[in-house]
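Appendix C reproduces, verbatim, an entry submitted by the partner laboratory led by Prof. M.T., so that reviewers can inspect both the input and the predicted structure.
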Amino acid sequence: MITLSSLTAISPLDGRYRIVLSDLAFCFSEYALIKFRACVEVEWFIALAESVAIPELRNLYVDEIKLLRQLVFNLDEKEALLIKQIEKTTNHDLKAVEYYLKQKLSRTSLERYQEFVHFACTSEDINNLAHALMLKKGIGCIWQGKAEMVIQAIDELAKKYQTVPMLAHTHGQAASPTTVGKEMAVFRHRLKRQLQFIKNQSYLGKINGAVGNFNAHQVAYPDMNWSQFAHDFVEKQLGLTYNPLTTQIESHDYIAEIFHNIIRFNTIILDFNCDMWLYISKGYFRQKMIAGEVGSSTMPHKVNPIDFENSEGNIGISNAMLTFMAQKLPVSRLQRDLSDSTVLRNMGVAIGHSFLALHSTIKGIAKLAIDEVRLQQDLNNTWQVLAEPIQTVMRKYGLENPYNQLKDLTRGKLITQAELAMFIKNLPISDEDKACLLDLTPANYLGLATII
């Protein structure tokens, strides 16, 4: 059998790009799932012990609570492999975690209470909470950190080039001038808005038994307020948001919400990548050359925008997966089917491709250097864009068909500064407005772009 390594991994996330995504492995790998499951099981045991309504399970001593939480802390890859060995017998991954923890409690002061591990729980009680914790850490800490970095990188472009004029293009044609900084600020604004939605997202969880009714709980301890207990456990013990009404599974609606938010964030990054690609193509931005890098295997002169292209490709994969998951996960036949299980195992793949895309975009931005000479050349060659302010001022005076007059003069033509000046001088408008129009150039016709 071939040995698994960065060279033999099927997924490039675990192969070629492993070093970039290593932090996500602590949130979305099989190892991470095992560890988060163990965390939920241990915290549930502790919560039950702290409840006064279960006389058969005494309050825990401080060192016993420490021992239990240390089991999770010490659950390294070697220990996780022991759980995988148990799974070979159980053929049930969650039950393997339960048996592992019970083994760890053997020959301790808690041995007699080991049946309260996984007490009254269905597998999904543990799984849904583990998945919520994984997502909260993976998205809330790691992915969001990278998202903040890409916004910061774009913000630096916006501030650095706030006043640098640039010919705008609508429909791919020369349009009213703008500034480089203002166009970067548009993306900064869009991304910050979407990121706020992601930051405000709740991560839901439930722990209410086989079909969501606390059936077994109520039989065992009918005097206990299980709804309130579950609520407090999910929110106070785990820091999640309690979902009070479910089937066997937490309905996954919040996962769909998060994924749709990330899809929108991804799509804005994709739009940014495409614009930067085009700006580089037009020569508005040059790319800093890195010693030793090769742009083409046959054309030595090339410096390709590979980072923006890499990001674009990874966003496509991420959005495709996130879209499928957001549509699939909220659908479950009757009280539960298992089709969500294998899908949930791929959450990290979808998030990983998004994370990699953000990383590549940041790399691409770091290589950019503006070419103000090229920007100025385009502005100097497009005096026709001043047709807009001229016809607008003419409207003030009620002149006949100002739009059509400028259309006849400029549409589809390259107009010189002298030709426009001659047209302006012959207009029956005030000397003040004439002077204003004559002072306009494509480089200073910027509206409020420099202060937005």
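Strands lie at 165-170, 173-179, 204-205, 241-242, 285-287, 368-370. Additional entries are available on request from the coordinating office.
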